[in-house]
Amino acid sequence: MDIATIVDEWIDPADLVKFQRTYEDQSRRGNPSAVAVFNYAHALIKSTKEDVKTGIFLLEGLLKRSEEDIPKRDYVYYLAIAHTRLKEYDRALDYINLLLSVETHNRQAAELKALIEKRMKRDGIVGLAVLGLGGVGAVVAGFVAAAFLSRRTAH
């Protein structure tokens, strides 16, 4: 499946409801598992603009959790996809560049970066990315980079 298809994919509403129920059931009993949060966030970013924003909020929350059920690179990758869907290309680039700084040979990330840059040019927003470089990257880069690097040095 090509990267544009992944970015533009829409979820079946029944699937979204299924992931929402799992997330809400676990939330009622306490903290939902990272897997339940990720699955729900992943479903949300394939839905409406407001749902994508909620998915971003959930994924950013997962970045702060210390659980390792799902690699943090997955959160970063899907945050880049979500921001691309919202046409927030500067933030999408911040996330994908962060991922590529740790995983320089990640083909999926490189393809997503190329798509983001193509859409930026198409939408005429290239200059905004330069202005936004200090945004998300500065806030999240330290935390995520430390997590990636600590994992790499542990192996």
UniProtKB/TrEMBL annotation:
InterPro entries documented for this protein: Fis1, Fis1_cytosol, Fis1_TPR_C, Fis1_TPR_N, TPR-like_helical_dom_sf
Keywords: Apoptosis, Membrane, Mitochondrion, Mitochondrion outer membrane, Peroxisome, Transmembrane, Transmembrane helix
Topology of this chain in the membrane: Single-pass membrane protein
Record's keyword annotation contains Transmembrane helix: yes
Major subcellular location class: mitochondrion
GO CC, one annotated term: peroxisomal membrane
Domain notes: The C-terminus is required for mitochondrial localization, while the N-terminus is necessary for mitochondrial fission.
Protein role: Involved in the fragmentation of the mitochondrial network and its perinuclear clustering.
Annotated family: Belongs to the FIS1 family.
Name of the molecule in the record: Mitochondrial fission 1 protein
UniProt source species: Acrobeloides nanus
